[in-house]
Fold this protein.
Amino acid sequence: MGEEQIFEQEQLVVFEVGDESFGIDISLVQEIIRLQPITEVPKAPMYVKGVINLRGKVIPIIDLRERFAFAMGEETKATRIVVVNVLGNTVGMIVDAVSEVLRLATDSIEPPSTIVESIGSQYLKGIGKLEDRLIILLDLDKLLVEMGATPIVENMIELSEVA
Amino acid sequence: MDLVFDASPEDLKVFTQEAEELIQQLDDAVLRLEKEGQNPELIQEIFRAAHTLKGSSGMLGHERMAELTHAMETLFDKLRKDELSVTTGLIDLFLDCLDALKVLKDECYTLKSSDIDVKTLSRRILAFADGMTEKAANAGKSKQTGKKDKSPKAKKGKQADKKAKSVKKDQSLVVLIDEEIEKISRAEIAGSQAFIVRAAVSSDCPMPAVRIYQIVEELQAVANIIKTHPEMDVIERSECGSEVEIVLVANEDQGSIESVIKSISELSSFSVEPYRASEESSVNEMTVEITESFSDERVEDLGPEARGKAKQEINQIRGSAVKTVRVDVERLDHLMNLVGELVIGKTRLLQIGSELADNYHLGDISGSLNEVTAQVGQITNELQEEVMRARMLPIEQVFNKFPRLVRDLARTAGKQINFVVEGKETEIDRSVLEEIGDPLIHILRNAIDHGIEMPEERKKAGKPAEGNVYLGARHEENHIVVEITDDGRGIDPNKLKDKAINKGFITPEAAEKMSDRDAYELMFLSGFSTAEKVSEISGRGVGMDVVRSNIKKINGSVGIESEMGRGTKFTIKLPLTLVIVDALIVVLSGKLYAIPLSMVKEVLRLEKGDIKLVDKLETILLRGSVLPLLRLNKLFGHIDSKERKEGRGLHVVVVGYGDNRVGVVVDRLVRKMEIMIKALGDYLGDVDGISGATILGDGKVALVIDPVALIAKVDTRALSSQITEFGVGPGQRMTA
């Protein structure tokens, strides 16, 4: 293995939703804020919690728990909103906790298809392995753009079983 | 073919803006010319605009544009000198040229060569100029005798008095300077004869420049060429058109020169005439100016000098408008956003100030705070007003396109129309302006196509043959009102009803009951078109439903009044701006919502017993008319937790535009405040009944209710209940 490859790594923001660790590219993350009062938007999909005022800008907030159809979680002190910029949209995602920022060597990321062929893994970029942990890398472009697509809960469960 | 311009992208942008304005100016002026006839001032204005356009297009290296404007200028110049009279043919020609110019201007955006045939157009212009001049020249011959002939080529508005000499005919393209005239005189003294040769290469010749070069070559063998137009170096570079003029001196006679040219193939026409320069050889002053004006005149074959000159000239023109600055629209939008933030901050400050004063005994400091807050508030208001004014544009920008449109439509339809525009100067927010063009075009088209009758029909009805169409704009309170009136045949409500029945929109029974006013509303249903034959003019698949939805989109409203045989009037009410509005803050299930105050008609307090059920729709009787009620809690899916206890009464906000009204049931009214409407963003997209969000004084987000969407809901419900009542099957499209 050449030395160069050691430097090919991705920097991720890792957060927890349910029992899973998810990672997203740090360059997409604008900021991480505490939970704040959210204004409900009528008739929006369930996982859209509403909108908040982020320093004069109105941004939508989605709940990743609902999005992945996990069991409803409690709001805790650790609950955060991860504000991301994706394809020109600023969107906040409620997560159970933000755990860390870490670097992951590119070659320790496996594309989802090589792990489970059957998974409709359209929202996943891959699975990152870090020592004994597995981090699910989300494809935010797809996750946030394809609103109202099928929940990916089964995939998640299967995935954790496989993992 | 890709185009390359001799300019930076910024220059190009400035040029296109300028060109756009000039073309618009020409458009207006030409139409006025048609109306007013030979008005010297107007002609001068046209000439100046055309000349500026020519100068700047030449400077930019937009050769085709320069060529066309150059040819147009020739016509304008003749007009100015009374050698041409204003005729419909001439106006048509001008308008065709302007259309071509618009396309050519757009080339600066696309950087692609369009399929505009400048050569043919220029030839048409020159042919027109020639044809007309012969007559005019004959008529005015005696008048001009003894006077020095002024060349149309060497002249520009401000240099009209300069002495440039042309060859014999007014439309000669060759302009000689004194040295050249001297050369001719000397040759004549030596026994030679001067001729002017004109030749045009036929249009199907693949390489006209080569033929022209050949002409010059052949002539050189028998004669001494003094000057050519286009100039020799242009011909050598094959950059000339398909016509050439050559002044030469020869020992041969006219016939032998003709025979030389005859030997060249692919010529569509040519002429050889004796050239008399001696008449003017006495003039020997101002050579320099003449040369200068000449090169300036012909900016299309630019040398660096001429380019500098043209630039200087354009700067001079710009200099006069130095008090205005072009600002990028985005920058203005950003400024408006910042002001909006400031307004929010101001509101918040006020709120905190009063909270402090109420809850703590702060004494003087609280008073000072209030003072400062008030002052900041004052400045903020002024700033907001100024920024809003900066975003305002005269409605002219849209209206100016219409005289031309109306003229063209009227001609196509064979109708005579007197089009009156008023209130052009009325200012309106840019965002509103952008949206009203299409609806207005559509209404105008309808007025001309369906409203105004054919001249004979009008005469029969005892009206003047010329139909009147009026377009006006004016301020009215916090709105702009745009009116379009025609004195045509009016709209037949029964026809509308029949159509609606045929299309399955309503039942005959429902039609019976329908008032005329309601019948007009049918026009706004999608898929409804009253034109018996789909004409080229208004049958383009855009219906009145698009008109209404476009106007609704900008919080405007549109109403119709019509009288059979007398005409129709459309009244469009538009908001001054879309960004900062006064709003009424209300509470629904503990959440705050804002309702734009412009849509609020009144606020009522009702008892439960006042509500009547009509077609399963909750309504109340308000001053004799039925007002449908809408429970927002239900509509927005809020759990109506605190169903008001009996007897406590209901708060109803009556919202609406025109005659469309609906009562919105809310839990509580809070207060009136200024809000800045922010979009919910692409991610959420359109939310039914919500037009956006706003940030309140305390930093919380409140959603802004969209009364238009709410009214649409009730409309639909009312109509659909009508339909079920009369047994029309489901599946009918009932979008309002």
In short: The mean pLDDT of chain B is 75.
